[in-house]
């Protein structure tokens, strides 16, 4: 740590009032993406110290990290040794995030090796630690890497699942660093939750979340749909990932970017959503049905566009029921103790209709909210009451959808 920062900290200056983040950068081609993560952290008021490995400097130079962070950059424990940086940096951090985290750094962290400033920092940190792995698919899937990841998670670290997509060269697969915007959201959620002991309370759990709104085709260009944006489901997925869960997000027609560390399955119709939920729920500890699933679909699909005929009214539209996915998975749980959460979007008699739906569906928790053209749909805010099968009621005041997501997982966790 540089002298100015030490003085600020000791005297209660600017650094003392800002969350201190250590951004570790290891030697992978994705190191360039960490520049964008650093920018988002600093611009949102965090005091960020970048600690790269020596190999990381082959991809992004020390001058770049220093200019973007406002702090000097070193890879060695011997720089400014009188300030004992190999101890102080980790001790004073509110969050340590390593992005990208190579297989080498994951292995060193899992085995407690400390041969440079970053690995020493990881050993001395007593704050939440987040790893964002990035490597080729074969390296990520290797038993040694998987065992190291399991070890780190068992100690309370949050190891974000890598994304799937284009890797170095022509290779494609799982191992891509999630986008910086989503990594920033994950870091923000971890910081908001506080101490290291509270971060990974869903570690080792597999949760399934549905989001968005299904579309039921009428002809090749038209469909029956709804106003759901999917933002509440995405908030649930992000928060669960930040709390250590393995998350499968089944999204219907949202167009939203994939949350960091979340496996995303894309569907269109209610029937497709049912198939994906049943498959994912087979080994899930909890299923949260936040998607707006169409109750009905057209009885017949027109193979060509339905034409408007001059002087003739359109033929009546015949509908058939879609499967009731929430009732089905509640009645036939894939695993003993599996927790099922439903959502009820109501326009009138909100609580009365919600209690009746909870009884009828048979789920453990039901999130009930009032919706309308200018309420909830597409908004970043939500207001709800979470009803429990045991009679409990938890009101959630108007606020960010992530706040509602936190409360839902607070209620799910003790039921697992």
TrEMBL record:
It holds the Pfam family DFP. In the N-terminal section; belongs to the HFCD (homo-oligomeric flavin containing Cys decarboxylase) superfamily. Catalyzes two steps in the biosynthesis of coenzyme A. In the first step cysteine is conjugated to 4'-phosphopantothenate to form 4-phosphopantothenoylcysteine, in the latter compound is decarboxylated to form 4'-phosphopantotheine. Keywords: Decarboxylase, Flavoprotein, FMN, Ligase, Lyase, Magnesium, Metal-binding, Multifunctional enzyme. It comes from the Bacteria. This is Coenzyme A biosynthesis bifunctional protein CoaBC. Its EC number is 4.1.1.36, 6.3.2.5. Residues 1-206 are annotated as: Phosphopantothenoylcysteine decarboxylase. It comes from Streptomyces chengmaiensis. Residues 202-413 form the DNA/pantothenate metabolism flavoprotein C-terminal domain. It catalyses: (R)-4'-phosphopantothenate + L-cysteine + CTP = N-[(R)-4-phosphopantothenoyl]-L-cysteine + CMP + diphosphate + H(+); N-[(R)-4-phosphopantothenoyl]-L-cysteine + H(+) = (R)-4'-phosphopantetheine + CO2. Binds 1 FMN per subunit. CTP binds at residues 295, 305, 323-326, 343, 357, 361. Pathway: Cofactor biosynthesis; coenzyme A biosynthesis; CoA from (R)-pantothenate: step 2/5; Cofactor biosynthesis; coenzyme A biosynthesis; CoA from (R)-pantothenate: step 3/5.
């Amino acid at each position: 740590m540089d002298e100015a920062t030490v003085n600020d900290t000791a005297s209660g200056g600017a650094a003392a009032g800002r969350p201190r983040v250590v951004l570790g950068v290891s030697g992978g081609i994705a190191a360039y993406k960490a520049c964008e993560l650093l920018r988002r952290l600093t611009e949102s008021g965090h005091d960020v110290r970048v600690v790269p490995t020596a190999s990381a400097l082959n991809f992004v130079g020390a001058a770049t990290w220093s200019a973007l962070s406002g702090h000097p950059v070193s890879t060695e424990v011997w720089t400014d040794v009188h300030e004992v940086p190999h101890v102080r940096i980790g001790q004073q951090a509110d969050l340590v995030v390593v992005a990208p985290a190579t297989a080498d750094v994951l292995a060193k962290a899992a085995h407690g090796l400390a041969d440079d400033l970053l690995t020493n920092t990881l050993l001395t940190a007593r704050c939440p630690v987040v790893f964002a792995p990035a490597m080729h698919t074969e390296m990520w899937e290797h038993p040694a890497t998987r065992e190291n990841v399991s070890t780190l998670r068992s100690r309370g670290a949050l190891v974000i699942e890598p994304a799937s997509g284009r890797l170095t060269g022509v290779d494609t697969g799982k191992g891509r660093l999630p986008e910086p915007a989503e990594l920033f959201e994950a870091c923000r959620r971890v910081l908001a939750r506080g101490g290291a002991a509270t971060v990974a309370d869903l570690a080792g759990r597999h949760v399934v979340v549905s989001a968005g709104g299904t579309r039921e085709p009428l002809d090749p260009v038209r469909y029956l749909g709804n106003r759901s944006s999917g933002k509440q489901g995405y908030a649930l997925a992000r928060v669960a990932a930040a709390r250590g869960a393995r998350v499968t997000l089944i999204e219907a027609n949202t167009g939203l970017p994939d949350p960091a560390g979340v496996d995303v399955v894309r569907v269109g119709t209610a029937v497709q959503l049912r198939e994906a939920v049943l498959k994912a729920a087979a080994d899930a500890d909890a299923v949260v049905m936040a998607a707006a699933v169409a109750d009905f679909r057209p009885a017949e699909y027109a193979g060509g566009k339905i034409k408007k005929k001059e002087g003739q009214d359109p033929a009546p539209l015949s509908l058939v029921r879609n499967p009731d996915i929430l009732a089905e998975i509640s009645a036939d749980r894939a695993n003993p103790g599996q927790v099922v959460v439903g959502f009820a979007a109501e326009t009138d008699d909100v609580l009365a209709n919600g209690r009746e739906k909870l009884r009828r569906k048979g789920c453990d928790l039901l999130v009930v909210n009032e919706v309308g053209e200018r309420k909830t749909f597409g908004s970043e805010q939500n207001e709800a009451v979470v009803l429990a099968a045991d009679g409990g009621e938890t009101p959630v005041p108007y606020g960010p959808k992530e706040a509602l997501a936190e409360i839902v997982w607070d209620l799910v966790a003790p039921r697992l």
